[in-house]
Amino acid sequence: MADFSPPPARPLPERVDVAIVGGGIVGVTAALALAGWGHSVALFEKGRIGCEQSSRNWGWIRAQGRDLREMPLMLEAQAMWPRLAAESGEDFGLTRGGATYLALTEAEMAGHVAWFEAARPFQMATRLLSAREADALAGQDAPRFRGGIHTETDMHAEPGPAIAALARLAARRGVAIYEATAVRVLDMAAGRSCGVVTEHGRVGAEAVMLAGGAWCRPFLENAGLSLPQLAVRSQALRTSPGPRLAPGVIGATPASIRPRRDGGYTVGRTGVAGFDIIPAAFTHFRAFVKLMRDRPGLVRLSLGRAFFGPLGRHRWGADDRSPFEDARILDPSPDPAVLRGIMTGLASAYPPLAGLRMVQGWGGMIDVTPDEIPVIGPVARLPGLILATGLSGHGFGLGPGAGRLAAEIATGRAPLVDPAPFAPARFGL
Ligand SMILES: Cc1cc2nc3c(=O)[nH]c(=O)nc-3n(C[C@H](O)[C@H](O)[C@H](O)COP(=O)(O)OP(=O)(O)OC[C@H]3O[C@@H](n4cnc5c(N)ncnc54)[C@H](O)[C@@H]3O)c2cc1C
């Protein structure tokens, strides 16, 4: 996944309506929306399109269990996915197979029931499962689960093929995509952003959208702004082909599974993420105390070389080589012990899958905000800059909605949902 040989440099445009920093799902879908409205767009990606979170995720596109503040945006995103797949003309495995969470304990089941009740106003196609139904779905002969929750409208897709197909669609719509082109800093004039300075030169822009995933915090820090956003290390694996338990995704504490087009499963586990302590951790510690308290065991802290790594550096100029060029692709190594633990969890939670082999494991850095919802909107302290980041571990599914909302804000259009919960102003930006 980390192989990187830069494509030949292409001449940059002098000026565009919107310059987008970051070729993940948010940047690509924002570009698609903008091009569809007739705007000129240049999208800059330091590595390859989708090379970080957007190709490494589990591929779940679920509304079930979502924070209610982002439900309207999630439901819009779910409506957009099939349209985008049809417009791309490519099959990237988009399947409305439903999502199920199985509860191992009464406490887990109580959490699902609480969400079920709270989400009633959204009239979701969600129902609670009995213990017997949960065990039958997982293929358990003896009683194991306490119940579950199922939403039949939830979806999944193959992340790598999906982001590549959407980028091709954007290119066909006229978006100028520059891979291997890091944006070092914002170009500034009279206190407002008037474009970007890339490693290959300057490009003027009416608006700049920062959709750089885990890199937004250091990018903004370098511009003198503070965004409480931390990057946690997560991992996933894929297995050899196995029997189908359900048409959709199934989540459980020991292991969560998504059926793949190749007949195997993408498997992961929540609560085994690691956080490498970097200088920003001290700056933003207080902002994350509540999250750590409410979700004990969410991340394991470790202190190592990452302290001095690219996400740790925070001052450079337009003429300096930037951390974005030093680390074209964030490709953290997966922890072999965690991968083994996921395979053990897979076999125990879903006995029919006990014979599957691990074919590949990988790591990915997930960017997280203290309230675990995105940051989308104008940066008041830096006119001309729109922020679209902080998707906090669920941005693949939410991505098209987030991209579109950011595009609407960048061009002064009426937003598809109330953007207030996502305002950067809540973090003083
Ligand atoms: C293991 C794992 C499992 C996950 N599972 C799910 C899931 O099942 N469902 C779900 O909805 N979400 C999931 N997520 C989260 C989801 O992948 C992310 O929330 C989403 O992809 C974020 O998209 P993005 O566009 O904001 O960021 P990214 O995909 O990280 O894209 C940002 C891009 O910006 C580029 N960039 C950064 N700075 C610069 C710069 N200065 N110049 C040029 N380019 C720059 C980066 O190279 C990168 O490609 C998972 C994530 C991981 C890692």
Task: Explain how this protein is built.
With 429 residues, this protein is of the alpha/beta class. It has two domains: 15-98 and 153-427, 3-Layer(bba) Sandwich (FAD/NAD(P)-binding domain), CATH 3.50.50.60; 99-152, no CATH class. Helix content is 29%, strand content 24%. The chain is built from eleven helices and 20 strands. The protein has helices at 25-36, 53-56, 71-88, 106-118, 131-138, 159-172, 216-222, 279-294, 323-326, 336-349, 395-410; strands at residues 15-21, 41-44, 60-61, 99-103, 126-129, 147-151, 155-156, 176-178, 183-189, 192-198, 201-210, 230-239, 249-251, 256-259, 265-268, 273-276, 299-302, 358-368, 375-378, 385-389. The strands form five sheets. Strands 1, 2, 8, 9, 10, 11, 19 and 20 form an eight-stranded mixed sheet that branches. Strands 5-6-4-13 form a four-stranded mixed sheet. Strands 14-15-12-18 form a four-stranded antiparallel sheet. Strand 14 (256-259) and strand 15 (265-268) form a beta hairpin. The longest helix has 18 residues, at 71-88. Bound molecules: flavin-adenine dinucleotide. The site of flavin-adenine dinucleotide has 43 residues, from helix 1, helix 2, strand 12, strand 18 and helix 11. Residues 21-27, 44-47, 51-54, 56-60, 182-183, 211-215, 219, 234, 236, 268, 324, 364, 366, 389, 391, 393-399 line the site of flavin-adenine dinucleotide.
